């Protein structure tokens, strides 16, 4: 048995279907001709963590001990970096990053980079996300710094279509979720959005395109791309070290 | 933060797409209205383990140290039982079960039970699986004991359609895999199979039904059902204990 491989740690379960979607996209996005070409991952998918958006909006830190416990389990298992397929959980990203020696990838930064690098030079993008992700400015600051305006749903649309749509995905009612979320996306396009960030990992489960043709940014997939880039870098560095020490 | 929940340990990565499929089916099969209703899982998906079928057929025990290392990580992470979404890996099931205090669920037993309990009282079923699963009799003994005949592909079909189809799934070429595997299934039906066991977790990724209308047994889904039954039992036992001790 050779040395243990470089393993990605996934702090997941937020929600669990989004974590399964992340894993599928990770496999599908990795160039491979056989099992052994794929990225090794440990996944901590423990959905009993309190709702991140509700907690943040209520000024509660309730998710933190659950996040930290998950991080510690992934560290003990031997993870080499951490990915969190949940946008809202990134409100605790800096504290997680400060609590570990491991690199904690950032879904918002990876996605904001994809928006600013888009060939259509988007100047105004819509953001569909939990209310906490919007209020916590996970996307706003990076996009404003790059000169991109962010348009969000009005309060009523946010409540009745986006938040309700995300809850419907979590309840397994994907068809109802798709209808609500599609209407919210249309309103953002009417409000001038030239692209839409699916800034909650439940959203790509039901939205893959929009009749208007504006690009949708699948943040699950953009996190997957960041993970693959990390893995290639970590694997190459490890090979160099092995060559030097052998 | 309440006590840690009862967590399922998944010894996966064999292959990684089958593990992602298992996770999605686990979520979809769990009655839930919110994230917190879902089963907590810790997944060890490390595809660098040597090919189980090739090793078994060559008389090699090469996968064993990888399986044991994965089991130990799942134990350390706090798993309460182990599920392995790979039929061929069950050739090492009894050794894994002997190496741990945890219950190790058995995909073959769960699936053979579903076959014998089928309302059509099937007397003859086809088995699509790796050559090692067939030679290692993961399904034969339980089904024969229940009076069910097992029909397997001829050597040429096994090689050119089933093994090649499984390899195509692992290489991400799902369309080509589906065509090969569908032909192998048709031959089994021509040979008198009244139902077909998809006895490799790569198969349900590309086969969900068959034009003949014979029932297909998705062993990934049948393992999921066994996991949910375990979880309900373990959670109920835990609640009883908490009531007694409080």
Automatic annotation (TrEMBL), chains A, B:
TM annotation in the entry: none
Annotated EC: 5.1.1.13
InterPro entries, sorted: Asp/Glu/hydantoin_racemase (IPR015942), Asp/Glu_race (IPR001920), Asp/Glu_racemase_AS_2 (IPR033134), Asp_race (IPR004380)
One protein family per Pfam: Asp_Glu_race
Sample GO molecular function, one term: aspartate racemase activity
Record carries keyword S-adenosyl-L-methionine: no
Keywords of the record: Isomerase
UniProt-recorded name of the protein: Aspartate racemase
Species of the source: Pandoraea pnomenusa
């Amino acid at each position: 048995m050779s040395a243990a491989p470089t393993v990605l740690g996934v702090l997941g379960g937020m929600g669990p279907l989004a974590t399964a979607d992340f894993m599928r996209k990770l496999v599908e996005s990795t160039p491979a001709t056989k099992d052994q070409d794929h990225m090794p991952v440990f996944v901590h998918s423990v959905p009993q963590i309190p709702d991140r958006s509700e907690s943040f909006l209520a000024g509660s830190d309730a998710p933190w001990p659950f996040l930290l416990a998950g991080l510690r389990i992934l560290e003990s298992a031997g993870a080499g970096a951490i990915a969190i397929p949940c946008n809202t959980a990134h409100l605790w990203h800096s504290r997680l990053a400060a609590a570990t020696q491991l690199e904690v990838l950032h879904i918002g930064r990876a996605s904001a980079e994809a928006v600013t690098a888009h060939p259509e030079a988007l100047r105004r993008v819509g953001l569909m996300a939990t209310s906490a992700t919007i209020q916590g400015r996970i996307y706003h600051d990076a996009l404003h710094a790059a000169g991109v305006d962010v348009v969000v749903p009005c309060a009523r649309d946010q409540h009745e279509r986006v938040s309700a749509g995300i809850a419907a995905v979590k309840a397994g009612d994907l068809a109802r979720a798709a209808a609500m979320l599609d209407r919210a996306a249309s309103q953002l396009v009417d409000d001038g959005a030239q692209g839409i960030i699916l800034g909650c990992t439940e959203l790509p489960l039901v939205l893959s395109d929009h009749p208007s043709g504006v690009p949708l940014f699948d943040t699950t997939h953009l996190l997957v791309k960041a993970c693959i880039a990390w893995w290639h870098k970590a694997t190459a560095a490890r090979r160099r070290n092995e060559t030097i020490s052998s």
